[in-house]
Structures are given as structure tokens and as C-alpha cells.
Amino acid sequence: MTIALFDVQCGFGGAAPGSREPLSAAALLAEMDGAGVERALARAVPAALEIDISWSNRHLFAACAGHPRLVPCPIVAPNSARDLAPEHLQLSEVISQGAGAVSIRPRQDTWSLAPWCCDRLFTAMQTRRLPVLCQLGELSYDDVAALAERYPTLPLVIIGADYRSQRILLPLLEAFATIYLSIGSNYIVQGGIEQCVETVGARRLLFGTGFPEVDMPAHIAQLMYADIADDEKRLIGAGNLDRLLQGVQR
Amino acid sequence: MSALWERVRRGQPLADCAVIDLHGHLGRCAVPAADPSVETHLRTMDRIGVDCAVVSHTHCMSWDSAEGNEEVLAAMRAFPGRLLGYVTLWPGDAEAARREMELRMRQGFIGVKLHNANGFRYTDPGYAPALAIANERRLPVLLHTWGDAPTFADVRALAPRYPDAAFLLGHAGVLAEDTYIALAREFPNVYLDPTMSRTPRGLWERLVEAVGADKLTWGSDALFYSMTPHPGKVAGAKISEEAKRMILGGNARRLVDRAHIETVAAS
């Protein structure tokens, strides 16, 4: 059995400090071809040298434009310093450019998750039902829970969960139906996929890899060898992300 | 597409390929596992097509290694041939460690797993009698390593001192990749075991190129984490099919076959 795979946790375009050149869209597509991944929600990663949100997004959109298999996932931030476009205009712009979701980097871009700083942004994203990628490290589990409580219809996707986190993740997924979990790097919990599916259902997990930090095959193997039904693998593999992207108010 | 990767991509067992997990564990630890039972572990192995796993108890990181070894023995006897055992040791008393090693050798354990989370160097005198036995029996000795200079110094001391033991450097390449490569090139009895949760992109390809597939072994570190991602790392690597087969099981079979091991009596 093969199942379609839509990677929620990958990217290209960024350069790690010390690397000779940024990873190209062609390199991501080659990895997808070799591993058998049909589509990818692509961010600009590594993110360390992505220091200018507008510039980074512009490059991402341009690089994805010729590749229908790549769905851009740009960065947004609150316009709290009046240096960016107003929040609703940021969202109109990225959606018009084909964004399927957005990522936020409160640490790297130095803003607060408190409502007095970012409520306009999150209210606008909730109105648009635009999935928000929440990279652990940029946000904590408590931060994600607080957002889910404040914006109860906004889809929040946790990426970067690790194999030690199940004692937190399971109750978090149970408590908030709008939180989704990428099973990409470094979520390799023993029996974790099976336990999540049994507890909250397969609709809450999304296939992801963590490329380019890691190669794609490990997380494909993890899904394919999971002890769950084929229909559940299909939902996780691509169905759930397709559903979330179809829900975006364009 | 590689035949082995094709099987992984379809979720099929890796049939007609020896697959031996040389870095496994049983037991509970600080990392939660939904179901750490031996039976569930074996079902996972069956889904992947893992012929056998060589396991130590998670107590290798703690002080009660004997109780852990006893649990491993029970699993070896319950599932002979599917689960093989590494002895783990507490080096506080060298004579006690020697007795524990001799007991487990009689019971059919096939190697030694040492973890330095206990605060002891691998060159600690408490380990010396057990390592001498490992050398006499030509056993695999799996060392937890994490790219640090003191551990590399221990490997440089032990590899020539016990030339017939096979030292497997667990988590090889997690850091200090060049030093791991240098050790595997320098010592014929040092092997690299790049088992880790987050394998840097291209690590397997670089190691095959640098030291050759015959110096690499495959493991999962289950049940610290799931076994399921790990076959993909090798089957999906951009290396030859022959290299994949050597890494997934051929090299492990060679290392186990050369060791002097007692037969395990089934329970």
C-alpha cells in the first residue's frame, strides 16, 4: 500500500550559519522525489539567517511560484512597532500569494504572545482560519495552550515536539481540539502515534519530516510502520493537512 | 527506487534481508513509552521485519544493573533468538562486576552495554575484569558515547587493550563526526553505531563514504524511542543496496557469529 504524503514540517531557502549556499527548492523537490513525498508546506529554513520577514517571504513566494507541489508557509508578526503592514493586510497578502499556513517566531522576531501585543494578528488569523505553525523553542507548550484557549477556532500546529514530550502532548491534544501535532522530527515516541490516534483520533496528527535538518525517510518509515489502520495513515499522510488548507478563508 | 526503500515506503516488512537491531533496550525510563511490553516490541519488530534485537535494560543508566539483566534474561528465554542480551554492569565493585559478567555469560548474553550516565569512565577499574572477559570471548561492547573528548580518550585506551572485543560507539556522529570517523579508521575493532533520534541530514552517506559500510551497525535505541523510524534512515539513504544490507544486519550477524556465546535455554 502506498499513501499520499504532504509534508507539514519542511522547507528550503535558508542557510545555516557557515554553510556555503542556501538549500534550493530543487534540492527539496529532489528529496521529495526520492522519498515519495508528493507535496510540501514549505517554510524558509534554516531560519537563523532569515532576519527580514518581508524579504524572506518574498524569496519563498518566488521560489514556490513555479512548483505547484510546494505550498508556501510564510512568516507573520504583529505590527506592534508599526514597521510591518497591518495584520489584516499581511494576511491578505500572503493568502493572495498562495500561502497554506503561516509560521510565527515570537522569539526570533522579538514579540510577546500576550494579547496586548498580538491580539490583532491572532484575531485576523482566526477569522481567516489560517493554520499557524508553532515551532517549539519559539513557543512553549503552555504558550500553545494559552493561544488555543484565547482563539478557540484557530488551527495551531505543533512542530518540533520530541520523544520526551508525551506526558505533556497527550493531555494538551485532549484539552484543545484545534491543536494538531506534526509527527516529524523529533517526535519519535515509542507507541506515540498509536496512543494519540486512540486518544484523540487520527484527524489531529499531520505527517511531517523536519527536512532539511534531517532526511525525509525516517519519518515516512515511522508513519508507514505505525500500528494503525490504513485509513488513519491516509488522514495523517495528507488528508488532514488538505482539510486544514481547504478551510482557509481566501 | 531501492527495493528496500520501496518496502519501507509501502509499510512492508524488510523480507529477504537480515535485519538485526544492535542497540536496543527493554524496561521503563524517564522517557514515557505508551506500552513498553516485550510483546508489543516484538510486534513492532514483526511489522518492520527485524529478525532480532540485542537489548540491554534501561537500568544500564542506573545502579541496579543486576535486576535489569534479570529482566533481559527472562525476555531472552521467552523469545529465544528474537531477543538477545547485553550485560550491563555497575562498576562500584570490580569483583562483583566480574561475577555478574560470568553469570550472564553462562546464561547466554552475547555482549556488554556500558553507559557513562553513571559518572564512571569506561576505563574505570571496576569494568576491567568484565572487559577482559569480553575480549576473551570476542564480544561486542556497546558504549554510549556523545562526542565528548573524555569518552574518545577512553576508546583510544580500550580498543588496543582489548583487541578482540568489538567496540560499538553508540550515537556515533551526533557530534564530532570527524573524530568518530578517525577512530573507526584507526582501530580495526571500532565500529560506528549512528543510532540517534535526530540524525543529521546525509550522515549515513558520509559515514559509508568515510569508513566503509562494513564498519557501520544499525540500531534503534527502542524503547527509549520508537523503533519504527530507524529502518527508514538506512533503507532510504543514498547508498548502495549492498551497503544497506550490510548495515541493517550483515555486519551484526558477523559480529555475533564470531563471538563465543553460550546457548540460551528457553523458559
Beta-strand fraction estimate of chain B: 5-15%
Please state the oligomeric state of the protein chains shown: heterodimer
The first-to-last residue Cα distance of chain A is 34 Å
Report how far apart the termini of chain B are.
43 Å
CATH class of chain A: Alpha Beta
- C-alpha Rg of chain A, in Å? 17 Å
Helix tally of chain A equals 9
What is the molecular shape of chain B?
globular
Relevant CATH superfamily of chain A? Metal-dependent hydrolases
Written overview of the protein:
The complex is a heterodimer of chains A (250) and B (267). By secondary structure, chain A is an alpha/beta fold. Chain A has a single domain (6-246), classed as TIM Barrel. Chain A has nine helices and eight strands. In chain A, α6 (166-175) packs parallel to α7. The longest helix of chain A is centred in the C-terminal third of the chain and has 17 residues, at 230-246. The N and C termini of chain A lie far apart (34 Å). The relative contact order of chain A is 0.15. By secondary structure, chain B is α/β, with parallel strands linked by helices. Chain B has a single domain, classed as Metal-dependent hydrolases (TIM Barrel). In chain B, strands 1-2-3-4-5-6-7 form a seven-stranded parallel beta sheet. In chain B, β5 (140-144), α6 and β6 form a beta-alpha-beta unit. In chain B, α4 (94-106) runs parallel beside α5 (128-137). The longest helix of chain B is centred in the C-terminal third of the chain and has 17 residues, at 241-257. Chain B is globular, with a radius of gyration of 17 Å. The model of chain B has no long low-confidence stretch (mean pLDDT 95). The interface between A and B is large, with 37 and 40 residues.
